[in-house]
Design brief:
The complex is a heterotrimer. Helices cover 62% and strands 3% of the residues of chain B. Chain B has helices at 4-7, 19-36, 38-59, 67-73, 132-137, 153-184, 187-201, 205-224, 235-259, 263-271, 276-305, 308-313, 331-339, 348-380, and strands spanning 62-66, 124-127, 141-142, 149-150. By secondary structure, chain C is mostly helical. The chains are: A alpha/beta, B mainly alpha, C mainly alpha. Chains B and C meet through helix 1, helix 2, helix 3, helix 6 and helix 7 of B and helix 1, helix 2, helix 4, helix 5 and helix 6 of C.
Chain lengths: 389, 383, 301
């Protein structure tokens, strides 16, 4: 007879402790943060309601996750969101308990991963354990579309525009989509500081890097007779990197398999920097942001595709006058946008924070014109008829 | 050792059991038969999942494009700078992917699926099936391009060379270790070393792949190859690492084979005054040879099917070469690579996964049948 | 070579060889070669382990397990991959154990060894044991991810695929364990009037448990370390939450290691090495359990 009340008390105690534990975990800490307080990378894009306003954990302007100097190393702080921005961000993160499956290009994956991480943090800060979960697969652009056009993913990442054959298969399977430009990718060609060459024609780039050059073009003077007879020493990106793929396309040799093979390849861009820095005839390539960070060690070449020498800068990559640049895309599935509010929220979140996300993932941000396009795409999305779930 | 069914006459078995027990017995047998046929189902599944798409690859055409763009660039990257008279011209209106500058403010049309209408089937373009002849005779393997080549020979050569390198590493060392364990080592040493080998045989291949990236590629393969410069990725690095991966298994299996040689044989030889070496090389080796051969074949078929190490260590190009210093792809690593690759949906390039998979399946199948035959012969020796 | 021939051969050698110094010399060279091969094997495999330990030990802390994968090395952890691995491995371990046991019991205890189904199943299992793991990935993609099962890139599809992969190993191990149970045990049970199923359940299975457990643990460790087929099943992914059901997205430890070791930044390489240490520790623990079971149950019949 006595066991029953004891059991009841026990059950009550367990329930109470679970509840207390839940509150302790779920609620905002007692010492509520305010604008200006420091926060951590792990909390980036966390959003909180303070009184009637909103604050968000953001990177401090002027600091970078990829800074080369200690002074510019990333710091994070709570920032007050003004006007409607706070309300908007709060709503964006409020899609509850849903999953988003993204797949596709390995080049775009780092960008989408950063976006996913920030979005998850934001969503968790509003919904707690019911925060949206985002998975980012790496199947390559083609592999991503393969799954996407079967309806297996919500968003496909692409380092090129969808091919008509792929679009055709999507449509055939009833998968409607919307194209959204999300960042730019620029490649810098770097040489030793002592090298007199400062600008190359794209035809010369091709001559230097194509398969036919193997064993034949071994000195700088083999490329252009007016250049010195310094032995050519080539450094390239790892063959399974997106950079390698991109260079195959953008160097105009005709794809990565048409690149010459007598190149020291490395996954580590630092190896390229050290090699080019230490060899008078060294030449290599990597992402533009990395070239800017290492401007003290190596010289970045200007490139000319017939319209004069163009310096690789954020602006010239953005307006496509610099030859070795390309836009990157995401393709949300219209059906997912209509049925899963989380997908729309993610796309909107990505779009509204696209500049910082690009920077943190070391990509060249969109131009204002591209952002107009992006907004156009968002408008198109918002015009899609909402289906009732 | 034989099963009970043969030791007890079957007609005696059911015995005077209750009806309920007999019913249970029937249900159990039916359930067990169902479960036991799972293996057959899996094999059927494997064959079906490989043969279907492979048949498509060799006989059916697949969609390669739709509408105008496909005519112009035929599978090429539409972002590539158009290769007309002036290959370096800034993209113009003709190129729908050009990004407009702010000044011009031109209207730019993003693609969406509403621009495609399948009503006009004449706009759909197809690529032809790949001929079996091209698959087996061409020496070019570039399935990922618009202007694609589907010759599987570079993959076969890569597979063979990496297997060969692995066996050069693993077979002598494995057999040597087995000799040591079975003939020379004290019972105590053996009791320590054997489990260690078994533990090492269970180390995941991704760990070996990491080791290849960290140590074998940059510090070993790059230094020991006299014939050409060797980059961080090479067939050599992959081959050595795969050899290290199969070494513990090779040694364990060879040791098992040697341990199975009857003691009387060894004792007889020792009694006749043979030294340990002579016992090892002239008595144990011939007697255990078929077992060792079977071990070699099992280890090699592991090497042929190894994906992760080769994917990490040998690079991502299927080059028609016999120089181990080059980057290479094997059949297995190509499948892994294509699984994270850029081939367009349902294209011939994508179907290569299945064609190559089927070939890989058949090759390992033949090897396994061979090893079973050898083991069967090996068993007869002592009956 | 028959036994007689071998012995005759040995006799011929020892009698013909009278220059014992040359013999001893050759013996020494041979032993030297054996030592060398053992040494090289041990040194390289030890280098593998130590270089990984040295690279990874600095990143090995509680945070690695308590946090989730991240695009930034500074706050990256492996929790979701750890849980993904546990889900996939435990599920495939349990399911394949049941199927393997059923198959083994049928083949060893019920089927007539000369029947066609017995031979068919046996040959099939031998074939399956030799199929490269990547081919199981194709099977999983074609059957579980897509139609007829249509499970998508989920824990369930991966567990099913790995079940198929470890099944032949487990069947072989279970059959060996059942074979090792002496017939006298069964005969005793029959003599007391037990049915076959009663005999299997009450006598044979308990006696075979240690062998079956050892074999299953080895099968499970194979599943835990496997990476190749899961590449095709979409597990090479950024997933920053633990699976909650068989329909969850997931990643696994070996593929997180794969992903981290191909990252450009050096920090990720250290993380990869630390994750390897975690994976190896888990495998070591599993194997130790297997060894302990094996040693404890050395019953001589």
């Amino acid at each position: 007879m006595t066991t029953r009340p004891i059991r009841k008390i026990l059950r009550g105690a367990i329930a109470a402790s679970v509840a207390v534990g839940g509150i302790a975990v779920g609620a905002t800490p007692a010492m509520a943060a305010k604008a200006g307080d420091a926060c951590k990378l792990a909390d980036a894009y966390k959003i909180e309601k303070v009184g009637t306003g909103y604050i968000r954990c953001e990177i401090v302007a002027g600091t970078s996750l990829h800074a080369s100097t200690k002074a510019r190393q990333a710091k994070f702080a709570w920032k007050a969101l003004t006007g409607k921005a706070g309300e908007l961000q709060w709503q964006l993160s409020s899609a509850k308990g849903a999953n988003i499956r993204i797949d596709g290009s390995s080049t775009v994956a780092p960008l989408a991963t950063v976006a996913a991480k920030y979005f998850e943090t934001a969503s968790r800060s509003v919904n707690g354990s019911k925060g949206v979960k985002v998975a980012v697969g790496i199947s390559g652009t083609g592999g991503g579309f393969e799954k996407f056009c079967r309806g297996e993913t919500d968003i496909s990442n692409a380092s090129r525009a969808i091919k008509s054959s792929e679009a055709a298969i999507c449509v055939k399977n009833g998968v409607a989509f919307t194209e959204i430009p999300i960042a730019n990718d620029g490649l810098a060609l770097v040489v030793n500081k002592s090298n007199p060459v400062s600008c190359m024609k794209m035809s010369e780039v091709k001559k230097m890097w194509e398969t036919a050059a193997t064993g034949k073009v071994t000195k700088w003077s083999d490329v252009n007779a007016s250049w010195p007879a310094t032995p050519l020493k080539l450094f390239g990106a790892g063959t399974d990197s997106g950079t390698f793929d991109a260079f195959g396309d953008l160097s105009t040799v005709g794809g990565k398999d048409k690149l010459r093979k007598d190149v020291s390849t490395s996954e580590d861009d630092n190896v390229t920097v050290r090699g080019v820095e230490g060899d008078a005839g060294g030449v290599g390539y990597f992402g533009l942001s990395y070239a800017i960070e290492n401007a003290a060690k190596v010289k970045t070449l200007l490139l000319d595709r017939g319209q004069g020498c163009v310096e690789p800068k954020v602006e010239t990559v953005q307006n496509s006058t610099y030859p070795m640049s390309r836009p990157l895309f995401i393709y949300p599935k219209n059906d997912a946008l209509q049925n899963n509010p989380a997908v729309g929220a993610f796309v909107n979140f990505f779009a509204s924070n696209v500049k910082q996300i690009s920077e943190d993932a070391v990509f060249v941000p969109l131009t204002n014109a591209q952002i107009k396009l992006l907004n156009g795409a968002l408008l198109k999305i918002s015009a899609l008829p909402k289906k009732k779930g | 050792m034989t099963t009970t069914a043969t030791t007890i006459p079957t007609d005696l078995l059911p015995g005077p059991h209750s009806r309920r027990q007999r019913r249970i017995e029937r249900v159990v047998v039916a359930a067990l038969v169902a479960i036991a046929s799972t293996g057959v189902l899996v094999t059927t599944g494997i064959v079906a999942s490989l043969v279907g798409p492979t048949w498509q690859f060799f006989t059916a055409r697949s969609i390669s494009g739709y509408g105008q763009e496909a005519v112009e660039v035929a599978g090429a990257d539409p972002y590539a700078i158009p290769a007309d008279d002036n290959p370096y011209a800034i993209p113009t209106d003709d190129n729908p992917y050009a990004i407009p500058t702010e000044e011009t403010g031109e209207e730019f049309v993003l693609r969406d699926s509403s621009s495609i209408d399948f009503a006009d089937e004449s706009l759909i373009q197809y690529e032809d099936p790949v001929s079996v002849r091209e698959f087996f005779t061409s020496t070019q393997w570039y399935p990922q391009y618009g202007d694609a080549d589907f010759g599987v020979l570079p993959l076969l050569v890569g597979t063979f060379l990496i297997m060969l390198t692995a066996s050069i590493v693993a077979v002598p060392m494995g057999v040597g270790t087995a000799f040591f364990l079975s003939q020379y080592a004290s019972e105590r040493t053996r009791r320590i070393l054997k489990p260690v080998l078994e533990l090492l045989a269970g180390v995941p291949t991704v760990v070996f792949g990491f080791f290849a990236l960290l140590v074998v590629g940059p510090h070993v393969a790059a230094r020991i190859w006299p014939f050409s410069d060797v980059g961080i990725y090479s067939g050599l690095s992959a081959g050595i690492t795969v050899g290290l991966m199969i070494l513990p298994m090779m040694a364990t299996l060879a040791d098992d084979a040697m341990a199975a040689v009857p003691r009387s044989l060894v004792e007889g030889a020792v009694a006749l005054g043979a030294t340990k070496r002579e016992v090892a090389t002239q008595v144990v080796l011939p007697a255990a040879l078929s077992g060792i051969m079977a071990a070699v074949i099992i280890a090699l078929s592991r090497a042929i099917g190894e994906t992760t190490i080769v994917l990490l260590a040998a690079g991502s190009q299927a080059v028609w070469t016999f120089n181990l210093g080059n980057e290479m792809q094997t059949m297995a690593s190509y499948i892994g690579f294509a699984g994270i690759g850029d081939q367009p949906t349902d294209s011939k390039g994508y179907q290569t996964i299945f064609a190559v998979g089927l070939l890989l399946f058949l090759i390992t199948f033949v090897l396994n049948v061979a090893s079973r035959r050898i083991v069967a012969r090996f068993r007869e020796v002592y009956e | 070579m028959s036994t007689v021939e071998v012995v005759r051969e040995a006799a011929r050698i020892s009698l013909a060889d009278t220059t014992s110094r040359a013999r001893r010399g050759r013996d020494a060279v041979f032993l030297g070669a054996l030592w060398l091969s053992l040494l090289v094997a041990i040194v390289t495999l030890a280098t593998l382990v130590t270089s990984t330990l040295v690279t990874g030990i600095g990143s090995l802390d509680l945070r690695l397990v308590s946090s989730f994968p991240s695009p930034f090395a500074a706050d990256a952890g492996l929790q979701s991959a750890l849980f993904g691995s546990l889900w996939v491995t435990i599920t495939s371990g349990v399911v394949s154990l049941v199927v393997a046991l059923g198959t083994a019991i049928y083949l060893e205890e019920f089927a007539d060894p000369r029947s066609r189904i017995q031979r068919l199943v046996t040959v099939n299992i031998q074939t399956l044991a030799g199929v490269p793991s990547i081919v199981y990935g194709i099977l999983g993609l074609a059957f579980f991810v897509r139609k007829p099962f249509d499970w998508g890139f989920t824990v369930g599809a991966a567990a099913a695929t790995l079940t198929m992969m470890v099944l032949p190993l487990m069947i072989v191990a279970s059959r060996e364990a059942l074979k090792a149970v002496p017939p006298s045990l069964r005969e005793g049970a029959y003599a007391l009037g037990a049915t076959r199923w009663q005999t299997v359940r009450k006598q044979v299975l308990p006696a075979a448990v240690p062998g079956i457990a050892t074999g299953s643990i080895l099968g499970v460790s194979r599943a835990l370390g496997e990476s190749a087929p899961l590449i095709l099943l979409g597990a090479l992914a950024y997933v920053s939450y633990n699976p909650t059901s068989f329909a969850s997205d997931f990643t696994v430890l070996p593929l997180l290691i794969f992903k981290w070791s191909t990252e450009v930044q050096v920090e990720f390489r250290a993380l990869a090495a630390a994750a390897i240490i975690v994976l190896l520790a888990m495998l070591l623990a599993l194997n130790l359990v297997a060894i302990v079971i094996r040693d404890r149950s050395r019953i001589s019949w």
